[in-house]
Amino acid sequence: MSWFNERFEDGLIMTSVDWAINWARQGSIWPVTFGLACCAIEMMATGASRFDLDRFGAGAFRPSPRQADLMIVAGTVTYKMASRVKRLFNQMPEPKQVMAMGACTVGGGPYFKYGYHVVKGVDLVVPVDVYVPGCPPRPEALLEGLMRLQDKIAHESRTKPEPSGRSLPVIA
Prior knowledge:
alpha/beta; elongated
């Protein structure tokens, strides 16, 4: 141990590039402002002062998908909106994540059985990283999903890509 201590100066920190990049990314998640139905109200409440999404580093909602790295799909996705969701997803820069918020987004909700216009889950349109169930999910559930997403970002590797390109989704 003395050889190691004599080699380096005091205050020197050694880490991997992956750890440093992921640490910075998980503390600065920028979601795109995108709400489709009643779940968007809960998403807005999460960004308000009571629940304070800013303390997790994700409070800077961006108006443009070109400035965002997280898409929170909140609400019922219809077939008419599916192409727009896909277009916004394609406009986001890499690396990008998607969070499905609410029962309608995750699996079609109560509208899928009797409605011909509702997509049975946004994962048929874009790849989803984190699912937040509920109708509508409480702001605490969205914060839990955000923490799960931060854990997922912390364990990503830039040098060793996943075989399929994306890992399995997490249910918050």
